[in-house]
Design goal:
Length: 105
Amino acid sequence: MEKIRKGDDVVVIAGKDKGKRGTVLKRVDDEHVLVEGVNVAKKHAKPNPQKNSTGGVVDKTMPLHISNVALFNPATQKADRVGIRQLEDGTRVRFFKSNGELVNV
């Protein structure tokens, strides 16, 4: 089970964008995520008439390593670690390590 999923509200805890909050747009692979508005780089793009795109310098969101982000806990208004717990009926759920509350999805 993944501790950080698409759509989660996360806080960057390391790197040049430390302290910024954003939503996970997608998981690039097992260890990298794209976070909205975080780790944005300028990229030079060639024009492509088939895709109807003009060339120039564009902003592109680059992937972040999962170890550099933490889930945002709305109860404490801080970044928090996440654990996985199995309920009595056998379903696995995520919970915040600081207060034990379940992560609502």
